[in-house]
Amino acid sequence: MTDKSLEEKLGLLKQLILVANADGKIKEVEYQLLLGLAANLGVSKEDFDKVFEPGVEVSMPKQLSDRIIQFHRMILLMNVDMDASPAEMDMIRKMGIMLGLNPQAIEIVLSEMKAYPNNLIPPDRMVQIFTKYLN
User: Fold this and answer.
1) What residues contact residue 71 under an 8 Å CB cut-off, 6+ apart?
2) Mean pLDDT of 116-127
3) What is the value of pTM for the model shown?
């Protein structure tokens, strides 16, 4: 991932929180994954906690590779509790489109992920799918 400002990182985390909260609750396992992703992005716990407050805007990565990585994070987050609700699936579709990803490719990823352990489609396979559907 390219070097991003704190605001951009918080915006990416806000997007992930929207996915986690799509079913009306953020489970402890989802929160812990979000916290780990924040640390991976170089965001402190103090700054991470601010993402739950109003005013943090959702951030959309500019590079296609960063958008695919963000979509992969969403898939990981949705499946961490092994209970992908219809609301979470709908939110992921919406966020994928907001990321500018091809709707057909999104559906293929969501369908194909079921063939992998823990519904986690490998990143290289996801890249293949999205690359096939580039405009």
Assistant:
1) 92, 95, 96, 99, 101, 106, 109, 126
2) 90
3) 0.82
